[in-house]
Design goal:
Layout: H1 4-11, H2 16-28, H3 34-40, H4 45-60, H5 78-82, H6 84-90
């Protein structure tokens, strides 16, 4: 089976968050340099440095990155995410649609 389109999804990411994820992975996991990652993803050296800086700050603050499964909680710390049910109790009730 030829998986050209499936392979292309990983080799040529088009969605901004997907591209950022793969660029950060190339830097942190594959150990590529800022210059190599910038060239691979057709962005500037300074863009990669900003992405790395922001990602490190999010990790140190215990925040989940924007491409993680808990993106709905973006900007909240992991501690706040774990207490999410408590926050829901304090919010006003949502209207229910009855058919």
């Amino acid at each position: 089976m030829v998986d050209i389109l499936c392979r292309q999804f990983f080799v040529e990411p088009t969605q901004p968050l997907h591209r950022r994820y793969l660029a950060l992975r190339a830097f942190f996991v594959d150990g590529q340099s800022y210059d190599a990652v910038a060239e691979q993803f057709a962005v500037t050296y300074h863009t990669i440095r900003s992405w790395v800086r922001d990602f490190r700050a999010q990790c140190q603050a215990g925040q989940s990155p924007p491409f993680s499964p808990s993106h709905a909680w973006a900007g909240r710390s992991l501690t706040t995410q774990r207490l999410g049910n408590q926050h829901k109790r304090n919010s006003p009730p949502r209207p229910t649609i009855v058919p």
